[in-house]
């Protein structure tokens, strides 16, 4: 299935890729703030998507998580439909759907429906993790098999879209879905999906924002095992990165304490709603504070100059074909401003007012 409408098929010269020359996208979790509701989270996500579209971001993805009070995007395909209805040109998709949580036929029908409603704008990113804890996985009626059957589930899903594998006489068909050109991405935080994406000739999105230690290995595995396919003739890497930009370094670092609190809550096994910035030196003992800050080292936090410098360094290191950026900031207006600063840095065609 050709994906000629996607940048993953553009002509790529053997030259170094640089910031300002590649697409920049948004990864959102529809975060639920302390003192707010899921309804507020969805309104904020739509507002951010509309601003991202205006500023020239390429795509807007939401991710599937369950049993997390601070994440409202659990019914991911429903949220995608809401965001697509409120925008007009930006691509909207899943970053991602955790495929082992679902019957492949259901996902084919859901995304076939979305693509039928918003043709040429829907992406389907797929992961193999549960997106939650073991008990929640069981509540989703998922067999606990560490994603070992992911390749088989992926093949089943792709076959539902492929008319060469179905016909009017087939016992099971995805309607809508069959014959539709919905770009499929593999997502990963290790080298498992990197190897699978390479062998199938699919685009690969690596979660560099929370698994930086595996970044170099995963990208090398993907590129070294890549086999050209009808979908893609060259490797295409989208890299997830956490960026918090503000007018001053000090303000950006204060805003980043919201993400640090999320790390602490997850480490302690007590995830909650998204917390406002705080002085963590008053809440954590020195060892815990050091560990949290170590976990944040891969995040790009700072003023415009710092963010721009570190993004250039990241591009020089990874040669990513696209960056997808998450920004865990509590205040919605501050989060908008962070993405606006980033657009002004990295999106030449963006309409940033800065």
Automatic annotation (TrEMBL):
Domain Luciferase-like, chain residue ranges per copy: 26-313
Gene3D superfamilies: Luciferase-like domain
Entries under InterPro entries matching the protein: Bact_Lucif_Oxidored (IPR050766), CmoO-like (IPR019949), Luciferase-like_dom (IPR011251), Luciferase-like_sf (IPR036661)
Protein family according to the UniProt entry: To bacterial alkanal monooxygenase alpha and beta chains.
Classification via Pfam families: Bac_luciferase (PF00296)
UniProt protein name: Luciferase-like domain-containing protein
């Amino acid at each position: 299935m050709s994906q000629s409408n996607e940048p993953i098929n553009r002509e790529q010269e053997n030259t170094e890729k640089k910031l300002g020359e590649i697409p920049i996208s948004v990864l959102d979790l529809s975060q639920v703030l302390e003192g707010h509701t899921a309804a507020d989270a969805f309104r904020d996500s739509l507002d951010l998507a509309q601003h991202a579209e205006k500023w020239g971001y390429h795509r807007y993805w939401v991710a599937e998580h369950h049993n997390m009070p601070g994440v409202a995007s659990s019914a991911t395909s429903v949220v995608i439909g809401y965001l697509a209805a409120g925008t007009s040109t930006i691509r909207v998709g899943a970053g991602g759907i955790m495929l082992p949580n679902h019957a492949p036929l259901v996902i084919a029908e859901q995304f076939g429906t979305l693509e039928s409603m918003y043709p040429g704008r829907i992406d389907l990113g797929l992961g193999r993790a549960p997106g939650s804890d073991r008990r929640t996985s069981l509540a989703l009626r998922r067999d606990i098999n560490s994603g070992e059957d992911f390749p088989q589930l992926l093949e089943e899903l792709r076959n539902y879209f492929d008319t060469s594998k179905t016909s009017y006489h087939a016992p099971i068909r995805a309607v809508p879905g069959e014959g539709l050109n919905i770009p499929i991405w593999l997502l990963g935080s290790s080298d498992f999906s990197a190897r699978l994406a390479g062998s199938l000739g699919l685009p690969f999105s690596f979660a560099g924002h929370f698994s930086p230690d595996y970044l170099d290995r995963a990208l090398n595995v993907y590129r070294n095992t890549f086999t050209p396919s009808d979908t893609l003739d060259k490797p295409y890497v989208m890299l997830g990165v956490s960026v918090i930009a503000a007018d001053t370094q000090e303000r950006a670092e204060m805003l980043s304490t919201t993400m640090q609190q999320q790390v602490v809550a997850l480490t302690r096994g007590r995830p909650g709603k998204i917390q406002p910035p705080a002085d963590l030196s008053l809440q954590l003992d020195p060892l815990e504070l050091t560990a949290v800050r170590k976990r944040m080292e891969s995040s790009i936090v700072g003023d415009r100059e710092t963010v721009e410098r570190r993004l250039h360094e990241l591009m020089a290191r990874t040669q990513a074909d696209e960056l997808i950026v998450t920004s865990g900031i509590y205040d919605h207006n501050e989060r908008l401003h962070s993405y606006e600063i980033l657009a002004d840095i990295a999106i030449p065609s963006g309409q940033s007012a800065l």
